[in-house]
């Protein structure tokens, strides 16, 4: 029952009843509280109402506002209003005093203040009016007794296997309540495994139980990112205690960032100045453009650009007329039959064909222009009147600044309908 007192809300504390007079006499209320405390420390509060006057008090009551996370184990005397934390003390003789002693464990955030406040309302024996006296005390929490570290990669690329490691060590002297650890990652992070197993399947969340002094451990999280971004991705580890169910107090947080390369490269592919699908007749010459831009802060090295066409085919010949290509850079084209009636053709440009692909400084861009016609029955016997061509582009980056991890960026596919 007493533990309930620790979390009782007292919203009306600072809105006192409109007592007629505030005492300026010799009746005082004081609070003895430790100036500092460790998180979860066993401690006591003593509230004293002292009647320093020569007139006895006919009636006295005390109301308290305790820190939310003071887990009370004993109150002497017991309050007559547990929810409001109210004590009816009654009479106090002249030059006498009454005390209230509270014992329990105090929880809270490290290096923050826990405040207790008291209001004494009393009526002297020779008055027909109430007076009041107030007091407060502050206890400052020590540094966190739970040490936490978080390590992980500074940089990665989409699809690369990476690991985040959290280590914890409890340096306190008393066994803790339930300890939980969470890891907050971007939605683009895909979990592959965790050791130990997670406590919840929908979050990177571990319940460690109560920790004894000197307890320590390690949590590892393995996964990949499925997309890059221009800005670094924030990663946060938090170790907290739960002095009451679903009530969490963070004891330690650690933050790192991981740059997922990919957002620094902008890749644009167009056909006839379009980025969406369109229709074209047989024999039409299609103008293609691939633009690679460096929006990052590091120089990109060893770029390789690709244009890929998956198209309707006849007798293992694509309806795209690669023999009639106009390509000032003279990229290398190869073809492969994917299935009956479907052939893929890929054109590749390296620094050998386009020396400016050797490096791409921040803010620079490279442009590749080429033209490909669609076959007609004159250039491809039995060429169909209807077909389709799916066009996409990709760029490989061999090195980013000092990071030698290769990666590839691709565009969405564009469908070109061939219609007579």
Summarize the structure.
The chain has 420 residues and is mainly beta.
What does this structure look like?
The radius of gyration is 37 Å and the shape is rod-shaped. The strands form 6 sheets. Strands 20, 22, 23, 24, 25, 26, 28, 29 and 30 form a 9-stranded mixed beta sheet that branches. It has one helix at 2-5, and strands at residues 27-32, 36-37, 41-51, 57-65, 70-76, 86-88, 97-106, 113-124, 131-141, 146-151, 155-156, 162-170, 178-184, 189-195, 205-210, 216-225, 233-244, 247-260, 265-271, 278-280, 285-294, 300-314, 317-318, 332-339, 342-349, 359-360, 365-373, 386-400, 407-410, 414-419. The protein is 1% helix and 55% strand. The longest helix has 4 residues, at 2-5. With 420 residues, it is mostly beta strands. It has 1 helix and 30 strands.
